[in-house]
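Homework help thread (please don't just give me the answer)

Our assignment gives two proteins as sequence + structure token strings and asks us to describe the second one. The first is just a warm-up. Here they are:
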Amino acid sequence: MFQRIALLLSLGLTIGCSGGAKIVPVSGTVTLDGKPLPNAHVSFQPLSKPGNEAPGVGSYGLTGADGAFTMRSAENDQAGAVVGKHRVEINIKADSSTDVDPRLKASQPKVVLPMKYNRQSELTFEVPAGGTSAANFDLKSK
């Protein structure tokens, strides 16, 4: 009896763990006109294809001062992104901090990205099975 229960449990774990999309490490950089783009929100949404209408959960990352980002799964905050082709959106994260002097905020130029990088994104990225540290996007302001 114990052996049957153990077999059923191990079979259930194997099936449960093999189902779903594979998430692999993904990182890269975002530049705007050749300069690092800080505070950019990068999102990947897996694209469906015939026979796979549910390719997996999306992922996101936030660029630092150097424009570098690391993707995280939107479902469980696991590092990485689903293997396969993704639609990519890049948006500027608004600075909502209240501890910054308003005069300094006003003197900093506001960065506006063309809609072809966000709402009407034309960007895609293919996440390879082994992951990548080369998810790089060189955006142009015009």
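The one we have to describe:
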Amino acid sequence: MWAMIVKEFRQLRRDRRTLAMLIVLPVLLLVVFGYAASFNVDTIPTTVVGPQAQSFADSLKAPFRVDKIDPSAGRSEAEIELRDGNTPTAFVTTASGTTTVLLDGSELFTATAAKGALASATGQSGPPPKVEVLYNPDLATSAVMIPGLAGLVLLFVGTLITSLGVVRERQAGTLEQLAVMPLRPRDVFLGKIAPYFIVASLDLVIILTVGVTLFNVPFNGSWWVLALGSLLFLFVTLGVGVLISIVSQNQGQAIQLAIMSALPQIILSGLIFPLESMAAGVRWISYVLPLTYFTQISRGVMLRGAPISALWEPFLFLSLLAVVVVAAATLRFRRQLAPAPSRRHRGAAAELAGAGAAR
């Protein structure tokens, strides 16, 4: 038994990737998620409009942070600011002294924190403002989570399932056959992701249909805008899955890398914990994760009915990520497939040289 224990320790020492997951990854996750895992929103970005906007903004205290003051704007402009995702909170003042607070219900934790702060401030001087929650009036958790869960399913199919593709080819011995076939690396890449793309698209339709019909999640925006965002997000996740499968030697390594890629996105994308509650040293990681931008698109389209012009930033970053990931996966495929023919040519040349020397 002792010999078996020693053998397993030696194998584990040689497998540096598994050793890193067992020792380094838990510490890293503890530090990162310790700063990210918080539902407390300490700062609430705010817009103040109306005739008394300036004086009212001067009277606001923490946690409200006034980012925009527009005395010439009214309620309609404030609603557009919320719909486009420019601010989660807007104070609409009038000449008569009444104030209405508009909250973006798609930002669940921010809206809840704003309501709590307003309730605690009712004892201050002046009449209490009227609070209205838009886009998710009941502050239902399902309305906020299901658009993000749709992205989580796409992430699971695109990264975890696809990552086993090339590894399966290598273990089955069919990767060499792909090398000798008249296919370009781009054709191989697209051929590998096409089945998973179709399956993930069907999963997306099913999830959104169930969410809208069973959980009464509103769908206030355009289907084609969400479809375009899903298309870009799928290309990114499928490309990451293919990259993982290329650099992995077996299915165990592919699963490990897929989990390492998916877990930060689940925690740091704003799907569960609000981005505003994360420490600045951790929040920057969120802006390089594709699920962050898909969550912004899906919630913006479904809950707020935001047009594509209001979502240009997440669309732009998803497009850049898609180009980078697909290009990297294609180049890695070219390097993966190229050595097989060259080895055969070198082998054939060596045989010819040996035959000539024998003669």
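TA reply:
I won't write it for you, but here's a hint about the kind of observation we're looking for: The beta strands are 44-49, 64-70, 89-93, 99-104, 130-134.
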